[in-house]
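hi! just following up on the protien thing from before. the input was this:
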Amino acid sequence: PVDRLVSHYYFVKRDTWHHSYPIIINHTFSEILEHVNDGYSLQFFVDPETVDGGIRNLDGFEFRPCCFNRTHLEAAKTLLRDRFSVVGVLEEIEKTRDVLECRVPWIKHQPIGKKMATKHSRPDYDKEAMKRATELDVEFYNFAKELLHQSYRDCATATV
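and the predicted 3d structure came back as:
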């Protein structure tokens, strides 16, 4: 989640066509970080009607709905655990591919390219602000990794 925030900041700062460019270009990463709400990844797994707090705003740029909480996190975990056949993470793409092959029979083994996305150096930022901005996201990400590792172990056991 921390790398995702940094990457998105640099992506928007580089691409003048992005709708957030006029805002990002005039602010440091630390300034943007003060307006980021924890739970970014949860927005894809929870009903937006259940999110309190409306929209946060910086220079007219609307950030995503505010504010996610532990109830949203637990609902997202339940959905991920109960409704997805395969959960994968890009940082462990080989394990993700192996689980896909195990769980989805028509997936065939394909080589995975080694070209990785550009790594950006992390800008200076307030560590407490980053913790506030990513605490739920980090917990959700770690939960997804746990699901991947369990599925990987289950698939390894099933093929023995």
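The chain is about 50% helix and 5% strand.
The radius of gyration is 18 Å.
cheers
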